[in-house]
């Protein structure tokens, strides 16, 4: 084993050690992070259970370092039009979060599930649109070819994992909801792309899990 591959293997193990095992998934417990982390008074108080969903945090193992696969949602979608997102979507009945994440990634961007080595689960996340999202972390061998589904995805790109895990890049922004309430949310700007809302919130939650929120 070369020094580079040994370093890569060590990083794999270190990240996996900070994640929940796949077996920890089950049911739809209350999410420990949500769209309302910065504005808890705006959190919905209804008893309607959130719908289970999953996203894939795909860490591509390039020789120069890890990157994360992100997409820009199609402009024709009815919700979250044009926003940057992680591949994923609603879980089918009886489907595991990692099964849903891999299926959605293949359907949306043509990522072959055989190229993904699952590492574990990050912090569950409750969205303001009524979903309980399980982020599934997996390592991906580089050299793959992607095929975008134009009905769902307008673009796909990779962002350095180190950039996304740097808390100095985690901005807190403000905006108004359709009801006129002021909302604060996390945002990360990579080159000319704005990563915000639930996607930025889940990446921030992964940072907190890995590094213990060492920097406020």
What's this, in brief?
Strands 1, 2, 3, 4, 5, 6, 7, 8 and 9 form a 9-stranded mixed sheet that branches. The protein has a 3-stranded antiparallel sheet with strand order 10-11-12. The chain is 22% helix and 34% strand.
Please describe what this structure looks like:
There is one protein chain. The chain is of the alpha+beta class and 216 residues long. Helices cover 22% and strands 34% of the residues. It has four helices and twelve strands; from the N terminus they run αβββββαββββαβββα. Strands 1, 2, 3, 4, 5, 6, 7, 8 and 9 form a nine-stranded mixed beta sheet that branches. Strand 7 and strand 8 (131-140) form a beta hairpin. The chain is globular, with a radius of gyration of 17 Å. It starts with a helix and ends in a 5-residue tail after the last helix. The mean pLDDT is 88.
């Amino acid at each position: 084993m070369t020094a580079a591959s040994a370093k890569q293997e060590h990083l794999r193990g270190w990240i996996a050690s900070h994640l929940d095992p796949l077996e920890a998934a089950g049911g739809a417990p209350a999410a420990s992070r949500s769209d309302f982390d910065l504005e808890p008074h705006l959190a919905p108080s209804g008893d309607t259970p959130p719908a289970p969903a999953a996203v894939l945090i795909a860490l591509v193992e390039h020789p120069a370092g890890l990157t994360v696969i992100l997409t820009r949602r199609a402009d024709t979608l009815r919700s979250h039009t044009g926003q940057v997102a992680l591949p994923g979507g609603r879980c089918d009945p009886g489907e595991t979060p990692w099964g849903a994440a891999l299926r959605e990634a293949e359907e949306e961007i043509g990522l072959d599930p055989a190229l993904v080595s699952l590492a574990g689960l990050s912090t569950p996340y409750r969205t303001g649109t009524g979903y309980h999202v399980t982020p599934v972390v997996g390592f991906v061998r580089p050299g793959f070819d992607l095929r975008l589904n134009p009905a769902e995805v307008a673009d796909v790109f990779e962002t350095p994992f180190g950039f996304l895990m740097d808390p100095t890049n985690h901005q807190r922004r403000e905006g108004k909801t359709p009801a006129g309430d002021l909302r604060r949310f996390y945002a990360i700007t990579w080159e000319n792309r704005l990563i915000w809302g639930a996607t930025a919130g889940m990446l921030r939650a992964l940072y907190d899990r890995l590094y213990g929120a060492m920097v406020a």
